[in-house]
Design a protein that fits this description.
three-stranded antiparallel sheet; mainly alpha; 9 strands; Cytochrome p450; binds protoporphyrin IX containing FE; 322 residues; two-stranded antiparallel ribbon
Length: 322
C-alpha cells in the first residue's frame, strides 16, 4: 500500500497519525455528514432511482450500489470531475495492486495508472481553485497545511476503501434482506431500523475481513510470543463471528446487539468514514430503495467474492417502481 499509494495516515502511528487524522476530521465528522454530505447523497440517489424507474430488471450492483457509493466519494474527496465509473475503476485498481502478493507486473502497472489518474484529478482540482469553505477531504487538508504528498496519499486511501465498502454493503444488505423476508419485514414495519440492518450485515459478512499490522514491540498473548517486525493479520471477520460474543453468529438477525462488532475496526485507526457510510447506507440508500421498489425480488444467484475485501459480485433483480 505504501509503495503503490504513498504513505497514508493509516500506516502512521502516534502523533504523526493524529496530526493527519485531525486534519481530515472536519470533513468526516458526524456534524459534517449531517450538515453537509447527507443531503448531497440523498439528491444523487434520487436521480439514480429515477433512472431505474423506467426499467423493470437489471443488475443493481452496477446500476444502483456502484454509482450511489461512487458519487458519495466524489463529493467527499472533492474530485467532482471524476466520473462514477472512473472512481470505481481506480478504486478497484488500487485494491488489486495492494493485494498483488504474487507481484504480477501487469497488476502493478495498472495500479500505477490508476493512482496517476487520481493525482491528475487532484492537480486539476487545485489548479481550478478550492474554495475557502470547501468541506471535502481535499479542501480540509489544504487548509490544514498538509503537503501535496500527504493529501494525495490520504485521498487514495479513502478511495481504495471508501468505494468498494459502501458499494458492497449497499448491495449486500439489499441481498441479505431480500433473502430473509422476515428480517426485511422488521425494517419495513419499523420494528427495527435500516441502520441495524446495515450494521448486522457488516458484522455478518465483514466487508473488510482483515487488516495487516507490523508488530512494534515484544508482546505475549495467550502463550504466543510476538516480536518487533513480525507481521500479523487482524481478522475482523473472525471476531465478528466469535461465539463468545455473538449468539448464533452465523445467523443474519437484524435485532441483535451489534455494539461489539468490529466492522469499522477499533482504536485510533477506527474507520474515519464510518459516519458518512452509516448516513449514506442507512439514512439514504436502503430506505429510498425499499420505498420506491416495494416489490423488488432477486432473479438469480448472488455470487460473493474476496475475503480481505468481501462482497457480492452481482445483484440481479426485478422490480416495479411505486
Ligand atoms: C461500509 C463501509 C466501510 C467499512 C466497512 C470500512 C471499514 C474500515 C476498517 C475496518 C478500517 C480500519 C482498518 C485498520 O484498522 O487497519 C477503516 C479505516 C479507514 N476508513 Fe473505512 N470503511 C468503510 C467506509 C469508508 C469510507 C466511505 C471512507 C472515506 C470516505 C473510509 C475511510 C477510511 C479511512 C481514512 C480509514 C483509516 C483511518 C485511520 O487509520 O485513522 N472508510 N475502514
Amino acid at each position: 500500500m505504501t509503495v503503490l499509494m504513498g504513505e497514508n495516515l493509516m500506516r502512521k502511528d502516534g502523533r504523526d497519525h493524529m496530526t493527519e487524522r485531525k486534519a481530515i476530521y472536519p470533513s468526516m465528522s458526524p456534524q459534517a455528514v449531517k450538515s453537509h454530505w447527507r443531503e448531497q447523497f440523498h439528491e444523487y440517489t434520487k436521480r439514480v432511482i429515477a433512472d431505474l424507474e423506467g426499467e423493470d430488471s437489471g443488475d443493481l450492483f452496477w446500476r444502483y450500489a456502484m454509482p450511489v457509493s461512487a458519487h458519495a466519494l466524489r463529493v467527499m474527496t472533492g474530485l467532482t470531475d471524476m466520473s462514477v465509473d472512473e472512481m470505481n475503476r481506480v478504486s478497484q485498481g488500487m485494491i488489486d495492486g495492494c493485494a498483488n502478493y504474487g507481484g504480477d507486473a501487469a497488476v502493478e502497472a495498472h495500479c500505477h495508472e490508476c493512482t496517476a489518474s487520481i493525482d491528475a484529478h487532484i492537480d486539476a482540482q487545485i489548479m481550478a481553485g478550492v474554495a475557502d469553505d470547501d468541506m471535502s477531504l481535499l479542501g480540509v487538508q489544504l487548509r490544514a497545511g498538509l503537503s501535496l504528498e500527504q493529501m494525495r496519499a490520504n485521498i487514495k486511501l479513502s478511495i481504495s476503501g471508501g468505494q468498494n465498502e459502501p458499494r458492497d454493503a449497499i448491495a449486500g444488505t439489499i441481498w441479505a434482506l431480500l433473502d430473509h423476508p422476515d428480517q426485511l419485514e422488521k425494517c419495513l414495519s419499523g420494528e427495527t431500523s435500516w441502520l441495524q440492518a446495515f450494521e448486522e450485515y457488516a458484522r455478518w459478512i465483514s466487508p473488510i475481513g482483515m487488516s495487516p499490522r507490523r508488530v512494534a514491540q515484544n508482546y505475549d498473548y495467550g502463550g504466543v510470543r510476538f516480536e518487533p517486525e513480525d507481521r500479523v493479520f487482524f481478522m475482523f471477520g473472525a471476531a465478528n463471528r466469535d461465539r463468545e460474543v455473538f449468539a448464533s453468529p452465523e445467523e443474519f438477525d437484524v435485532t441483535r446487539d451489534i455494539r461489539k462488532s468490529l466492522s469499522f475496526g477499533a482504536g485510533p485507526h477506527f474507520c474515519a468514514g464510518a459516519w458518512a457510510s452509516r448516513a449514506l447506507i442507512a439514512d439514504v440508500a436502503l430506505p429510498i430503495f425499499f420505498e420506491k421498489f416495494a416489490d423488488v425480488h432477486l432473479t438469480g444467484e448472488v455470487p460473493f467474492g474476496g475475503w480481505a475485501f468481501r462482497g457480492p459480485l452481482a445483484l440481479p433483480c426485478r422490480w416495479t417502481a411505486f
